[in-house]
């Protein structure tokens, strides 16, 4: 009985997964057809719609955006450089040699 329920549950999950894949594929094809089959245009519209990218209208908006990215790069460098420095300046391990 438990094996039969397990197979039924597996089939239900498979059918649900296939239905979702079909729905996502249809939505993607529909969206691509609306933008003239341009993946980059679709990606740009998606990023603007979810707020990942904001339109930059003035030089001040652009400069503020670039400074924010610069600060993130500086923080990443300040974290990565000490780790790299320790890795490079590790004392080499003594290698065992065999005497003949």
Weakly predicted, low-confidence segments: none
Q: What distance lies between the first and last C-alpha atoms, to the nearest angstrom?
A: 70 Å
Number of strand elements:
0
Q: Kindly state the mean pLDDT as a whole number?
A: 89
The coarse overall form would be flat
C-alpha Rg, in Å?
Answer: 27 Å
What does this structure look like?
The chain crosses the membrane at residues 12-32, 69-88. This protein is mostly helical. It has a domain at 55-88. The protein is 75% helix and 0% strand. The longest helix is centred in the N-terminal third of the chain and has 33 residues, at 2-34. 0% of the residues are buried.
Secondary-structure topology with pairs:
Layout: H1 2-34, H2 39-50, H3 59-88
Features:
100 residues, 3 helices, transmembrane, membrane, flat, mainly alpha
Briefly summarize what is shown:
Keywords: Membrane, Transmembrane, Transmembrane helix. The chain is built from 3 helices and no strands.
């Amino acid at each position: 009985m438990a094996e039969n329920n397990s197979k039924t549950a597996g089939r239900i999950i498979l059918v649900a997964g296939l239905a979702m894949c079909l729905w996502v594929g249809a939505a993607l094809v529909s969206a691509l057809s609306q933008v003239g089959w341009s993946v980059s245009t679709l990606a740009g519209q998606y990023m603007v719609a979810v707020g990942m990218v904001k339109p930059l209208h003035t030089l001040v908006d652009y400069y503020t955006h670039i400074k924010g990215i610069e600060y993130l790069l500086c923080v990443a460098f300040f974290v990565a450089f000490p780790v790299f420095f320790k890795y490079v300046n590790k004392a080499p391990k003594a290698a065992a040699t065999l005497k003949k």
